[in-house]
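User: My instructor asked us to take a sequence, write out its structure as tokens, and then describe one feature of it. I'm not sure where to start. Here is the sequence I was given:
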Amino acid sequence: MQSTKRRRWLQAAAAMTLAGLLASDPSISAVPVESAEVPQAIVNSPARAVTADDDDPDIAKLLGLSEEEAARRNAKIQNRRIELVSKRAETSSIYVNPDGTLTAESYAGPVRVKQDDGSWHYIDTELVDEGAALEPETAAADIAVSDGGDKKLASVSKGATSLALGWEDTLPTPTVKDDTASYDLGDGQTLTVTALKQGFSQNVRLDEAPSGDLTYRIPVTLKGLTLSETDSGHLLLKNSAGKLVAEAPAPMMWDSSVDERSGESKHLAPVDTEIETAADGSQALVLRPDAGYFAQDLTYPVTVDPTNTLAATTDTWVATNYPDSQISSTELKSGTYNGGTTVARSFLKFDLADYEGAKVIDTNLALYSDWSSSCTEGTGTAVRRITESWSSSTVTWADPPASTTTGQVINTAAKGYSADCPAGTMNFDIDAIVRAWTSGTANQGLLVRGVDETDSYTWRRFRSANYVSGDGSTEPHLTITYNHYPEVPSAPSLSPSTDTNVVTSRTPALSTMVSDDDPQRVRAQYAIEPDPAYNDTTYTLSSDTPYVDTMEAAVLAVPEASPLPDGKHLRVRAQTFSRIKCPVRDAAA
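Assistant: Let's start with the prediction itself. The structure tokens for your sequence are:
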């Protein structure tokens, strides 16, 4: 115990001594010293004494280190991963691990948003009253929802483009709960608008069967966008260059009955949709629910889902009963619950362009399952590599992109049916797929499906990139642990030697320049062996240098105990290591 206390005291004393010396300069302030009872790793710098857990953003500058160099040092000292904050983005994060590798977390959609002051906030779509309208707390687009008293239902804008939906009658003051505003329209009808990450969804809830035919005419106001409809009823919003910037699936309606296996309504139906363009160029989305649908034995309320408005995303799902791409859904689906009568498949994609050529060490695809058809596992869920280009705006059940079983990964877990198998994350170790992408195979994304699409135990409902967890924990994300290959070393040199590659000592020094794109230390391994052009000796030597900083010479002296043979022909090869090998670089001597 005494030795421990003394060691802590010595650490504190080191900081005090340095700070005291600097304090003698009136232009430099003394640095407060941590309590001697709290162990701290001390890093001395010419400017100040700094502890490794100091969160001051100037620490890297004070130590003369780049952000990544400082992160690597602190990750090792603190034995925990350190985020490279400058690399943080709406859909990804990169961390330095204690062993020097890097870990990237990539999402299929945004989970955070950068604020005007440079800070990052996780997306939070709870609606708050901002005066002129209701707005989500934090979203990846500018979203406004009517607080009543006007006909401007909701709008979303990003950059120079915007979309606004109206209502034919003046809206009443809504009831607001979390991310949803509800408007009482009378006659047993309630209009709701829900804020999403990049847009909004709206629907009409009917508490009883309508007395006559229903028609909803929704005025559409566009800026920099053009609205169109595909043959399947899919709604597209394109900019002046023809680029897809937002889309919505074909409208559907359903009642409140619940199939205990699927967790979904037993009565689904498409809604007839038309885009009207008036003489003045104004447009409206017109929806006409089929009156015949309400003649069934339905469980009310019935939901008529006019449209979901959202920026183009990279995950979606289709099914035999939802044949159009469900891009704005907050969930993904796969498998079957009724022997193959209803089958669903999901598609998602992650941007991995920054990791091309990297050495992939480990991967994990995390999908959060909040519903399964049973606690019985069945044949499981498969993740496959998609092999052809696809778009969330064009994929349908009848026309899915091709995929391959090469590298396929299966997880048989059943999560989300009951307390006996509660909702949770299903993990897929897709190393082979990601290595194919980083090695040059085109990244066309992933297919998620049931292994046997007639197995009723394969039904899964996962949370999608549109779901808002508040911390990115349950949205689909791909984690990749990787490293970059060190550079091929320069041609090895030997000293002393002549210009004709004749070594003038039997214990020369070998030297090569080593470097790594990652700011980590590198070592060289030298191999001295017979020159095959002469093959006049059996001498061999293989030895490693100590680790040196990148862009420095890695030097090795041939030991006295293993001198080179006199008058023989040898060659020298050098290979660099960080945590992984790179190709060798040969040179003869």
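For the description part of your assignment, you could build on this observation: Helices lie at 2-23, 59-62, 67-78, 431-438. Try explaining in your own words what that tells you about the chain.
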